[in-house]
Amino acid sequence: MTEVTFHDYSKLGGDEKAALLRRSETDISTFIEKVAPILEAVRTEGDRAVARFGRDLDKADVSEDKIKVTEAEFDAAFKAVSEDVIEAITFGIENIRHFHEEQKPEAMWLKEIKPGAFAGDRFTPIKSVALYVPRGKGSFPSVTMMTSVPAVVAGVPDLAIVTPPAPDGGVDAATLVAARLAGVKTVYKVGGAQAVAAVAYGTETIKPALKIVGPGSPWVVAAKRSLAGIIDTGLPAGPSEAIIFADDTLHGGLAALDLLIEAEHGPDSSAYLVTHSRRVADEALAALPDHWARMTEQRVQFSSMVLSGKCGGIILTSSVEESYDFINAYAPEHLEILSTDPFAHLGHITEAAEILLGPHTPVSIANFCLGPNAVLPTSRWARTFGPLSVTDFVKRSSIGYVTAPAYPEFAKRAHKLAEYEGFSSHAHAVSAVRDTYLPKRG
Ligand SMILES: NC(=O)c1ccc[n+]([C@@H]2O[C@H](COP(=O)([O-])OP(=O)(O)OC[C@H]3O[C@@H](n4cnc5c(N)ncnc54)[C@H](O)[C@@H]3O)[C@@H](O)[C@H]2O)c1
Ligand SMILES: N[C@H](CO)Cc1c[nH]c[nH+]1
Ligand SMILES: [Zn+2]
């Protein structure tokens, strides 16, 4: 019988309240230490280290000549996956593509800042990006869809997926199906810290990339943090987490059902039901055993560890305002607003990476196929980062264009500021010296 952690929020002291904001990844210093030799081995030994870590850490039958997925493996994946799953992947990709096409910025905009002087932005795809698709405590064709589709919409020319191999040396079949349907042709069988190192440094087989995106376990998070000076590591997406916020308008059993969604990812996940309704909290507690009875043994084990531990459970607040305050301080990756009037609450919550409204929008639907991206910042990073998007796959260049008639007005001011800052060359470049070189007007 699992003892679910229960907090009567208004009775907690400051330190206890602060402790509720912690995630398993808040302190990953031990992982940082442990990944260091893995990163160094990949840097110096390349494919040899990749294959060795595949054997040692993934218990996978990988050799140096089998790191890249072949066309035959892609073809076999389509035969191994059922029609229904392929249909669900196709449905998801279509919605995710529609959503992300809306996000795609105009290739360029220019505005006339002053008469005859123009400024704007131009967006071009990043030349190479690696997509991390986890595998271990689950397989993730959905993460393949969520990372591949925006990258393809953005037009990244050189895309590669890195994902841990299974003991048979192969890649999860649905991941390969999703990759091909989304338009990604290159998949490497490498996961964990060694995958991040492989795309940061490059190996004989694996091309180096400018950026890596995608969620992962603390091994992946630690490797990304360690190599952030060598490769762009994008938004920080670690172990999954959710807050289910409920007012007093729905049954607590529904809140319990959805609380278990992200709690079942692994013992390192975080999941809270936050409510000011004692009735909802009691109904949720009472419903959990029934919900657990319908789950697989491994998922019961993971979710009960989360809900009875330091990063999960039920938080009973004394008012709806206190619930809002806690949620904004926590800045969850996923937030569900369980209410018959979710829009009444929406304006009060500013710190959450994904906000799902009402009883028909459970996290599962958004995880797999609604359209918005389910690769999201964890561990309070929702305070500064948003979900993975098309803009993560492009970079922005500013464009400026001053015409001859507009030039004198700008040169005068630039000259003044250059003198003040003490930059003589900057000043000369906009002085009368320049005029002697400029094409004569008229
Ligand atoms: N934030 C998001 O958007 C999002 C989305 C999906 C999943 N997730 C999270 O991603 C994570 C996926 O984790 P996972 O474990 O299933 O897959 P993973 O691919 O992230 O990690 C597995 C890899 O970790 C490495 N590893 C395992 N034990 C190790 C050890 N002792 N030493 C060194 N390396 C070791 C291995 O290389 C293995 O391939 C979960 O925490 C899940 O909650 C997050
Ligand atoms: N919950 C994950 C994002 O935090 C996404 C996912 C994929 N599969 C299951 N869940
Ligand atoms: Zn999930």
Q: Can you describe what's shown?
A:
This protein is an alpha/beta fold and 442 residues long. The protein is 44% helix and 16% strand. β11 (334-338), α14 and β12 (354-357) form a beta-alpha-beta unit. The protein is globular and about 85 Å long. The mean pLDDT is 97.
Summarize, please.
The chain has about 450 residues and is α/β, with parallel strands linked by helices.
Essential attributes:
binds nicotinamide-adenine-dinucleotide; 18 helices; Rossmann fold; binds L-histidinol; binds zinc ion; four-stranded parallel sheet
User: Any idea what the radius of gyration is?
Assistant: 26 Å
CATH superfamily of the largest domain: Nitrogenase molybdenum iron protein domain
Instruction: Report the mean per-residue pLDDT as an integer.
Output: 97
Supply the CATH architecture of the largest domain. 3-Layer(aba) Sandwich
The distinct ligands, each listed once, are:
nicotinamide-adenine-dinucleotide, L-histidinol, zinc ion
Q: Please count the helical segments.
A: 18
SSE-based structural type: alpha/beta
List low-pLDDT spans.
none
Question: If strands are numbered along the chain, what order do they take across the biggest sheet?
Answer: 1-10-9-8-11-12
Keywords: Metal-binding, Oxidoreductase, Zinc
Cofactor: Zn(2+)
Pfam families: Histidinol_dh (PF00815)
Active site: 333 (proton acceptor), 334 (proton acceptor)
